[in-house]
Amino acid sequence: MPSSQAPRHIHLIGICGTAMASLAGMLQAQGHRITGSDAGAYPPMSDQLAAMNIPLLQPFDEANLEPRPDLVVVGNAISRGNPELEYVLDQRIPFCSMAAMIHDEFLQQRESLVVSGTHGKTTTTSMLTWIYEVASRRDPRFAPSFLVGGVAENFGTSYRVNPDTRPFILEGDEYDTAFFDKGPKFLHYFPDALILTHVEFDHADIYADLAQVKTAFKRLVNLLPRRGRIVAFDRSDNVTECVARAFCPVERYGFEASSHWQITNFQPGARSRWTLLRQGQHFADLELPMAGEHNALNATAAAALAAGQGVDAESITEALRTFRSVKRRLEVRSEAHGITVIDDFAHHPTAIRETLRALRSAYPGRRLIAVVEPRSATLRRNVFEQDLIESLTAANEVVLAAVFKQESIPAEERLEPQRVVAALNQRGTPAQLLPDADTISTTLAPTLQQGDVVAILSNGGFGGIYTKLPAAIAATRSAESTT
After folding, report:
1. Residue 253 sits in which domain range?
2. In this structure, are 266 and 292 located in the same domain?
3. Is residue 1 over pLDDT 50?
4. Does residue 105 form part of some domain?
5. I need a labelling partner for 304 at 20 to 30 A (CA). Which of 33, 156, 169, 409 fits?
6. Strands 397-400 and 431-433
7. Which E.C. number(s) belong to this protein (predicted)?
8. Domain check: are 278 and 363 in the same one?
9. Residues 241 and 353 grouped into a single domain
10. Is residue 245 domain-shared with residue 356, that is, in the same domain?
11. Does residue 3 form part of some domain?
12. Residues 6+ away with beta carbon under 8 Å from 91
């Protein structure tokens, strides 16, 4: 299923976003010449772009658009005032959004399998993709194309385009599409089958309230054809409301006895095990090398959708047993001197709570320190302040960084870290506010003890803390050994 377009020079503004970098690779695989620009680059996507030999131009500048590209893809983080965007508009260079490009270039005449929800999208998409990959060993028709919002470790990449098969698995993001298209990205993907994990208030910068979030998901559900299928989480009134008027079959999954796909006999730990029932009948005994009920739910959703599309239980079982997670999802960044440093992308209070619960299960009896950067548009706002406090009480200690680019959030809407720290201390969870990665690393490292688990929670680069903290730990231990 090759591209219908002749090779073009396509420039991506904001290329270091996870999906944008993936799109760059997909377009290059289609034979197009790709360039891109961004204000700042950090792993893992900067590494992926370098490995693909795609030029990354920094910073944004009109000169990056010379020679004139045939088409410009404008990332959703790009707004009016960006010098490249202004040049594109002045010169009338053709442009489009990332989501529209994905639909036009890759999804037509394919089977679109979309994973949506306010939590768990990236992990669930990666699980579903790996299930299809394992199934393709028995039946080549299942060989997937995919687009994941992170680096899927089973593949070592966030994307693949398979020209000869129909399944295309992609993460459906509810965030807006571009400066000229304020609807959610996932409305461009026209699913043939859909997973809906959770629906909560999120992205307070673009949604006024939960009602608006639910409206977005209802619009997505309304795109499913009658022949389609929805796999939806069962322990959520919001999800129930969003799928209530679907024109296609809806299969619920979870721990409820009434679930179409029911998790039973769940055994927590660093490796999760459970039995999956399909309409009350044994389907498979599953094992996942990840901790946490939320990951068992993610795996069950992926298993349910795959089974409904014809994938056999043996392939599903083997795939989940050998699943290797996603970069920045409970990723161990350092294990030295008896101290484990974990990197996780959690950037919503619910995700933080589930991440800390999973770490409690994976590392029982060990002291858990949460290091949190309020970086996402959600976490930087005070509307989530009480929920954040509640979620962080699951840690033994908390270190909170300053609000990222706090000047971009109106003062009356901005999270007040001092209030969070004071509330945690009042509840008996020791907490402190430290301004940046350097201060956190040098302050925290001398206090860490053998057996400690440090969970770094941010959806960005966090000032390089993922390398700075392990280096500070090593320096502290070295200094101790010489005294």
Report:
1. 110-321
2. yes
3. no
4. no
5. 156
6. parallel
7. 6.3.2.45
8. no
9. no
10. no
11. no
12. 65, 68
Locate 476 and state its tokens.
Answer: 């502290």
Torsion sign over Cα 417, 422, 428, 434: positive
Q: Which residue has the tokens 């299942």?
A: 142
> Which token pair is 157?
């990449």
Give the per-residue pLDDT at 42.
Answer: 66
Section 310-331 average pLDDT: 90
Q: Among the listed ranges 27-31, 97-101, 309-313, 373-377, which one has the minimum average pLDDT value?
A: 373-377
Q: In this structure, which amino acid lies at residue 55?
A: P
* Burial (Cβ within 10 Å: 0-12, 13-18, ≥19) of residue 426: exposed
User: Is there a single domain that holds both residue 414 and residue 340?
Assistant: yes
Query: Rounded CA gap, 426 and 204, in Å?
Result: 28
Looking at the structure, tell me whether residues 404 and 469 fall in a common domain: yes
Give 483's pLDDT tier (boundaries 50, 70, 90).
low
Count of domains observed in the chain = 3
Nearest to 286, CA basis, from 261, 249, 252:
261
**Across the chain, what does the average pLDDT equal?**
92
pLDDT at 310: 97
Instruction: Identify the band that residue 2 occupies on the pLDDT scale cut at 50, 70 and 90.
Output: very low
Where does the pLDDT of residue 348 fall: very low under 50, low under 70, confident under 90, or very high at 90 and above? confident
Is it the case that residue 346 has pLDDT exceeding 80? no
- Strands (E) across 203-258 are located at 229-233, 250-254
Question: Are 385 and 297 in a shared domain?
Answer: no
3 state SS for 344-376: ECCCCHHHHHHHHHHHHHHCCCCCEEEEECCCC
Distance CA 100, CA 104 (A): 6
